[in-house]
């Protein structure tokens, strides 16, 4: 079979891509060979005759809504066999369920008046039967693949319209029964709230139930594989409920608008669970002040083992949540505690972290996810022999159970891809036609999500009510609380049993292990990180998709380890690589801000989770991550305080070489829980010295315009 580009065909309201498919249908011996008694498949090519058939494949490239709906009925005739699935998975980006259903049923599916319709002159019973079959095929696919489209409480008008159509045109059909059952199911679930979509993983408590400080003994009583299985159980229940069209870039990117607070609830539920796991890790490590160094190190080791169990279960969502928490600012700065973590566990941690390396657009995690998407069990490789033995032993136990495993992905990867596609490709082409090529590209990502959702049916996990109750009852620490407890724990550890000599050797061992150098003390601007793969808060390009809890910017929301992206982020709408100009140097006014004592003591350890406001972060080497006071790989971290409002409190923000003043200002306002729409009312200023500052023009590129030879400390000040 060979394919040849046949160009384009243009009709009124539609443009088609044409492909010519050449297929060999027969091979026979020529006359001379037949006279000799030879057969075609036993003779050399010069003695055979091949017959080919060329067929035309028409795939709609762009069209009006009417043409796209009409194409649902003719796609099979044009040999565009995937069109129906693509349309049903993506049409919510440009039309409503009601609009499509009315076109399909009233304009093209009215069997009584269809002889005057646009599809064809249906004057015969045979033609009517063909149309009836085409309509039934589309409706069946719609109900099977996208039944959530018809959930419109409390009236369910579209479902009732469909039921009325089926009763009149296809009475007593199996589809009529299916619609009736679906309507009853929706009506019975009307009392279900958006929070109910969180299922067993919701961190909300029952009335009268109190939040508890994490009890280390109770947490230690749960076996590692039990915790991993329960986290996987919660993740599976949520991921299977994700409605694919909720992930489309044009929908998900609008989530921050006030009127869209209930938009994409199934995706928000997975974010809530991801953040709950991350916060749980932090609270179990820091929640109890009385813990000794070795006890705290044991909890870290336990979480690394749990992460490894998640890897065996192919649960990449909780795996990433745990790794992000361990790489968060308040945990990775526990230098003395990390020194007490065994070498084998540290190596395991490093290998797990490498899965989410942002090198080459997260190529490692993408390849691994696709490799294991439909495999029965995890494919475990370890460079450390002892870890390899443990992994194979645990994996063998899983195989002995004889139950296949699914795969739970980190959803943020797909969300970011869809946002990128939505940014890069136009919604409409010349003539105002809907760009359906864009929807075909989006469906490639949606299809992967559906495939993984299907694989999750292979899991056979039983909920452990004791663990679920413990997990939901955990009191999560705020950002300030976790940082304060981290400093207290580290200060107590500094005066503990470790002698200066042993401490020096411990630091040297960790430096050699992870930094590939014998340097004992890193520069002040870059605190030692236990893993070279995570930023101070687990920054990632995916954070534009999986962001902080429900975006209401309260103090408790800031704890989330996945950074928040600003609403209406210009980077999501397009890229501008023009370099900004340098601002002007002026004398610093009386509103000068100083770092707090906490910030000074911490060096570059900002007490805030870094903000990643863009999904267009450049691919960074695992060894060259964005840090405070250093520009590397087209990105860096700056600290921004508000002039006159908590001026001693800095918020860390990650910026890239794409960011201009409005982008950074908007994110800074969000981080300080202020109205992000007031961008024009503020100016951004870099502190150069006690008596000098750098004032940026309104549209300057911050990355290129800033002074990289002084501290990356900024002030957001109201314009005079």
From TrEMBL:
Domain Ras-associating, first and last residues per copy: 634-720
Residues of the N-terminal Ras-GEF domain: 56-187
GO molecular function, one term: guanyl-nucleotide exchange factor activity
Key words of the record: Guanine-nucleotide releasing factor
GO biological process annotation, one example: Ras protein signal transduction
GO cellular component: plasma membrane
Residue numbers spanned by region Disordered: 518-548, 560-591
Protein's UniProt name: RGL1 protein
Native source organism of the sequence: Sakesphorus luctuosus
Originating gene: Rgl1
């Amino acid at each position: 079979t060979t394919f040849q580009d046949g160009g384009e065909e243009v009709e009124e309201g539609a443009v088609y891509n044409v492909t010519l498919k050449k297929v060999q249908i027969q091979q026979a011996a020529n006359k001379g060979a037949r006279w000799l008694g030879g057969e075609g498949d036993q003779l050399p090519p010069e003695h055979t005759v091949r017959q080919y058939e060329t067929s035309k494949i028409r795939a709609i490239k762009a069209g009006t809504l009417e043409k796209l709906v009409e194409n649902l009925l003719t796609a099979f005739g044009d040999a565009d066999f995937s069109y129906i699935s693509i349309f049903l998975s993506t049409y919510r980006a440009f039309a409503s369920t009601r609009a499509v259903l009315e076109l399909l049923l009233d304009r093209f599916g009215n069997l009584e008046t269809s002889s005057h319709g646009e599809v064809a002159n249906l004057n015969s019973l045979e033609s009517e039967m063909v149309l009836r079959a085409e309509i039934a095929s589309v409706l069946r696919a719609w109900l099977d693949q996208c039944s959530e489209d018809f959930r419109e409480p409390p009236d369910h008008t579209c479902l009732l319209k469909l039921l009325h159509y089926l009763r009149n045109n296809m009475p007593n059909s199996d589809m009529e029964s299916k619609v009736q059952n679906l309507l009853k199911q929706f009506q019975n679930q009307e009392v279900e709230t958006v929070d109910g979509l969180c299922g067993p993983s919701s961190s909300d408590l029952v009335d009268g139930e109190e939040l508890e400080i994490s009890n280390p003994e109770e947490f230690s009583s749960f076996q590692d594989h039990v915790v991993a299985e329960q986290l996987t159980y919660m993740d599976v229940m949520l991921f299977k409920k994700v409605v694919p069209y909720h992930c489309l870039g044009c929908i998900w990117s609008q989530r921050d608008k006030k009127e869209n607070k209930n938009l994409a609830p199934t995706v928000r539920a997975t974010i809530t669970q991801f953040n709950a796991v991350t916060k749980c890790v932090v609270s179990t490590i820091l929640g109890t002040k009385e813990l000794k160094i070795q006890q705290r190190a044991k909890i870290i080791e336990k979480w690394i083992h749990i992460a490894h169990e998640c890897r065996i279960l192919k649960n990449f969502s909780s795996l990433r949540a745990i790794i992000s928490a361990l790489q968060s600012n308040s945990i990775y700065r526990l230098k003395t505690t990390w020194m007490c973590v065994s070498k084998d566990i540290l190596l395991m941690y490093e290998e797990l972290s490498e899965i989410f390396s942002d090198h080459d657009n997260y190529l490692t995690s993408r390849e691994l996810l696709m490799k294991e998407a439909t495999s029965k069990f995890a494919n475990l490789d370890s460079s450390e022999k002892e870890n390899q033995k443990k992994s194979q032993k645990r994996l063998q136990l899983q195989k002995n159970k004889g139950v296949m495993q699914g795969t739970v992905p980190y959803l943020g990867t797909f969300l970011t891809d869809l946002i990128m596609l939505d940014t890069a490709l136009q919604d409409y082409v010349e003539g105002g036609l809907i760009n359906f090529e864009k929807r075909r590209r989006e469906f490639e990502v949606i299809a992967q999500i559906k495939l993984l959702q299907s694989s999750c049916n292979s899991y056979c996990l039983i909920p452990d009510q004791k663990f679920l109750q413990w997990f939901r009852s955990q009191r999560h620490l705020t950002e300030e609380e976790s940082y304060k407890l981290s400093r207290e724990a580290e200060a107590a550890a500094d005066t503990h049993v470790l002698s200066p000599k042993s401490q020096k050797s411990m630091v040297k061992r960790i430096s050699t292990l992870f930094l590939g150098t014998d340097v004992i003390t890193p520069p002040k601007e870059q605190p030692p990180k236990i893993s070279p793969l995570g930023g101070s808060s687990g920054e990632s390009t995916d954070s534009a998709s999986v962001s902080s809890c429900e975006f209401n910017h309260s103090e408790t929301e800031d704890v989330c380890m996945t950074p928040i992206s600003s609403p209406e982020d210009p980077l999501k709408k397009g890229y501008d690589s023009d370099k900004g100009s340098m601002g002007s140097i002026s004398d610093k006014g009386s509103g000068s801000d100083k770092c707090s004592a906490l910030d000074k003591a911490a060096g570059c350890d900002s007490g805030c989770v870094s903000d990643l406001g863009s999904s267009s972060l450049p691919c960074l080497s695992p060894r060259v991550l964005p840090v405070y006071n250093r520009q590397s790989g087209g990105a860096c971290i700056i600290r921004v305080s508000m002039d006159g409002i908590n001026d001693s409190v800095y918020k860390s923000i990650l910026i890239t070489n794409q960011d201009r003043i409005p982008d950074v200002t908007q994110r800074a306002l969000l981080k300080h829980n202020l109205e992000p729409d007031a961008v024009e009312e503020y100016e951004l200023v870099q502190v150069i010295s006690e008596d000098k500052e750098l004032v940026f023009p309104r549209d300057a590129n911050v990355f290129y315009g800033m002074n990289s030879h002084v501290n990356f400390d900024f002030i957001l000040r109201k314009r005079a």
